Amino acid sequence: MSERRIVILTDGRTTPTGAKTASCVVRYKPKEVVALLDTTQPGKTAGELLGVGGSIPVVANLADAPGANTLLIGIAPSGGKLPAAWRKILLEAIDRGMNLVSGLHDFLSNDPEIAGAASKKGVEIYDVRKNNEKDVSNRLNLREDCLRIHTVGQDCSVGKMLASVELTIGLKKRGHDAKFIATGQTGIMIEGDGCPVDCVVSDFVNGAVEKLILANQHHDILLIEGQGSLSHPRYSAVTLGLLHGCVPHGMILVYEAGRKNVHGMDYIPLVPLKKIVEVNETMASLAMPSKVIGVAMNSRALSPEEAEAERERVGRELGLPVCDVIRHGPDVLIDAILAFRQKLFPHLKAKAG
Amino acid sequence: MSERRIVILTDGRTTPTGAKTASCVVRYKPKEVVALLDTTQPGKTAGELLGVGGSIPVVANLADAPGANTLLIGIAPSGGKLPAAWRKILLEAIDRGMNLVSGLHDFLSNDPEIAGAASKKGVEIYDVRKNNEKDVSNRLNLREDCLRIHTVGQDCSVGKMLASVELTIGLKKRGHDAKFIATGQTGIMIEGDGCPVDCVVSDFVNGAVEKLILANQHHDILLIEGQGSLSHPRYSAVTLGLLHGCVPHGMILVYEAGRKNVHGMDYIPLVPLKKIVEVNETMASLAMPSKVIGVAMNSRALSPEEAEAERERVGRELGLPVCDVIRHGPDVLIDAILAFRQKLFPHLKAKAG
Questions:
Q1: Which terminal Cβ of chain A has fewer Cβ within 10 Å, N or C?
Q2: A54-88 residue pLDDT tens
Q3: Which one of A134, A235, A267 has the shortest CB-CB distance to B79?
Q4: In this structure, which CATH number among 3.60.60.10, 3.40.50.720, 3.30.70.260, 1.10.645.10 belongs to the domain A6-127?
Q5: Architecture of the domain spanning B147-344
């Protein structure tokens, strides 16, 4: 397709947590985004509302972003359903000749009204989560010295994708052939490839992830995006299939400082970090020996002083290097990954950095 | 539908392990089965080939079972695909006015040729695995004193369904209001309800199972069929979603004596039973305290003497009651379940038995 000029639909939910997909696309593809569409806050900017995206404007109407050729749905609600009020915005976008990009579980291309209008107008619908995965895992032919690092979490929506992307960028900057392995709709929108594991039929999750690894192991280091948590009441099936499908050598634990309860289920307390490390190591090691080698702390809710105290406390508690990849940069974790790699594969020559 | 008179298609695979679905349907619905269809072994009986089903005949042609009104696919191959050679048998069955029952991942009702023929002839297709589960788990409103017992396994195809059914039958015989909760295609064919969890989109596995529990907790004791194993390279996603969706009070470990490697992956050794107990208790207890309270040993490959020695050895190793629910009957495990229930819910009056 020709160059994308995207309007991101975040109507009424333009906040860093309410519009997770929007925040990430704005962060990593700022040149492609011409506006956010939120009828409740026109005139503001992405920078003001999301903390990223600088002067990208918020508009109330598609007509206010005349050069756009793509409407991207910028939220990932629990259950993945399309808010009812958005239907007429999607139909208007189609009428304006815009393509649609959606990561919802409710596929737009299966919606008779939307698909019919798109077909009539000749625009395309990209349902990022749509897949037809039907292969089981075989756990064969894994490249021995392709390092697989997997981000695992205490909860969903803590920053596993962000940590994976930042670590990949940092490793590349140091001259390594690293690749971000996207496993969720937002990651796929950013990276352009990957597998929407949470929308794969459960029998084939492990197999779909393994296929993704086999297709990318010509790279030297894979940073595999985690999903949910092994302790998540809703999504643990996804998490374990992903863990066993990607058979990581090492894991980076991701959590949000200050969060006490499961995201969206505030009546269920989070499982402590120490236990999360233990269950991830136990479950990963059913496939092959695997260790948590560092912690990516999401400290967005903390002051700089609080963040330092938290970093210190968690590092001491878990005996692991800790950083916030946004606040501190990812270097501490990149050092940990490279040292781990050197220890695992001593035959590989150390590269610069 | 009117009374089913079933031919079970097991062509070329009429063995207890090759035709798992057939064996179970024959075992629990013998009056509905008029014949097995296997072109390679006509003239034999179900009893000879499957060890169950007595004199139910094996025929080579549908014409040899003229009274039948239903063709049921009697295998559950890895990946769930339709063997290519069976297509013309299905089309012939449709032509004879028979309904189709299938537990394959490849839905017959989505196959243009088969669905077209069925529609033309006015026969019905029951794709047991077809579902549209789209609800996440909430972990709310569970009845406190409805006992949830979940069969968990060292591997797939070890007898978790069989153990669950036998325990349910045994508990009912002792006057308890027990219900078998089917979670796989064969269990659903036998029980008439349930959820095909391995065919549910991974984000919704936990939720689909929870829904099944909520719909059945007017019964006093639920025996929830397990799937795969937490250690299974292919199916662990299904297993953990099921475990966290049904939040069991207690678990029964099921394994096949003498099996050394993962079913269908003979290059991967099984995880030892002790470790399987440990990971199931650890992972279940992330939701609520849960224990393995007994072991259902599948000793089909052993002599009576070997079975006794194995039972003794495993009981000592794990410190748990052990029996083969077919060879010994389920009483030892039923006693364990009732004692466990009495301890958990001392306010419930002990019933006879």
A1: N
A2: 999 999 999 999 999 999 999 866 666 787 888 99
A3: A134
A4: 3.40.50.720
A5: 3-Layer(aba) Sandwich (3.40)
User: Over chain B (353 residues), what is each successive 10-residue block's mean pLDDT?
Assistant: 87 88 95 96 96 96 96 78 86 98 92 97 96 96 97 97 98 98 96 97 98 98 98 98 98 98 97 98 98 98 97 98 98 98 88 49
Does A185 lie at the interface with B, CB-CB under 8 angstroms?
no
Minimal Cβ distance to A237: which of B238, B265, B279 = B238
Residues of chain A with CATH 3.40.50.300: 147-344
Which H helix or E strand runs over B22? helix B20-28
Alpha-carbon distance B217 to nearest alpha carbon in chain A (angstroms) = 19
**Closest CB from A137, A203, A275 relative to B198:** A203
Question: Which of residues 99 through 118 in chain A touch B, CB cutoff 8 A?
Answer: 105
Say how many CA atoms lie within 13 Å of B214 toward its Cβ.
13
What whole-number distance in Å separates Cα of residue A313 and Cα of residue A319? 10
| Backbone phi, psi, residue A8, to 5° | -100, 125
Asked if B202 lies within 8 A of A199 by C-beta distance, the reply is yes
B110-115: Cβ within 8 A, 24+ apart: B111/B82, B113/B87, B114/B87, B114/B90
Output the six-digit token pair for B205. 């596995």
Question: Which of B129, B211, B234, B280 to mutate: most A Cβ within 10 Å?
Answer: B234
A238–B203 C-beta distance less than 8 A:
yes
For residue range A116-140, list pLDDT tens digits in order.
999 999 999 999 999 999 999 999 9
Binary contact (B199, A202; C-beta < 8 A): yes
